[in-house]
Amino acid sequence: MSFTIKQILTGDLPRLGQAPPLAADPYLIPVSLRVNGQEHQLRLEPRVSLLDALREFIGLTGTKKGCNQGACGACTVLVDGERVNSCLTFAVMHEGRDITTIEGLGEPEDLHPLQAAFIEHDGFQCGYCTPGQICSAVAMLREVAQGDASFVSADLTAPAVELTDVEMRERMSGNICRCGAYVGIMNAIREVYEQQLTGPRA
């Protein structure tokens, strides 16, 4: 499915399952995106953000549009395992890369450990920021496991990182919860972090 820039700006977008516009737009270019292991062949205006490509063109609406300027983290997805604010990057920049959205982390019958922990610890209220929070936490725990330092790490040369509350707050600071469910969010992340260190509890 392909849209013109005028349709995007005016909100006149055909939904999935509807016939695409008949008139070919000379400004659209072919883009192949691999999302959650599935290839999607699109024709996009080069300035379409990855966020809009995911939501409006592919139909994966789990990724949320919050501020649309990289300040809230609601649109966080994983690109080759690293967290990315999808509102700040163009879709055409991600051909050939593995994009994972909240829909690709788990299924209702087989939740990702962080998804299950967010439910158990009430890590959400309205839920709008939750997909971005979880995607960011998945990448953050991978960064910690790799020993990547943060702004508040005391020893930048240490081979391992201890995920203290201060470290967690700094590393998750790009994801805002306007409901203020930070205690539940931190408890959920800590549970999964400790499981990774010691193995799942019985």
Report on the structure:
The chain has 202 residues and is α+β, with helices and mostly antiparallel strands. The protein folds into 2 domains: 100 residues, Ubiquitin-like (UB roll), CATH 3.10.20; 86 residues, Orthogonal Bundle (DNA polymerase, domain 1). Helices cover 32% and strands 12% of the residues. The protein has 6 helices and 5 strands, in the order αββαβββαααα. It has a 5-stranded mixed sheet, sandwiched between helices. A hairpin with a 2-residue loop joins strand 3 and strand 4. The longest helix is centred in the C-terminal third of the chain and has 17 residues. It starts with a helix and ends with a helix.
| Number of E-state strands | 5
Low-confidence stretches: none
- The helix tally amounts to 6
* Main sheet summary: 5 strands, mixed
Elements, N to C (H/E): HEEHEEEHHHH
Helix content: 25-40%
The averaged pLDDT comes out at: 89
Number of domains: 2
CATH homologous superfamily title of the largest domain: Beta-grasp domain
**Which fold does the CATH topology of the largest domain refer to?**
Ubiquitin-like (UB roll)
Q: Structural class of the helix and strand makeup?
A: alpha+beta
CATH class category label of the largest domain: Alpha Beta
End-to-end Cα distance, whole Å, is: 47 Å
* CATH architecture title of the largest domain: Roll
Beta-strand share of residues: 5-15%
Overall outline: globular
Rg over CA atoms: 18 Å
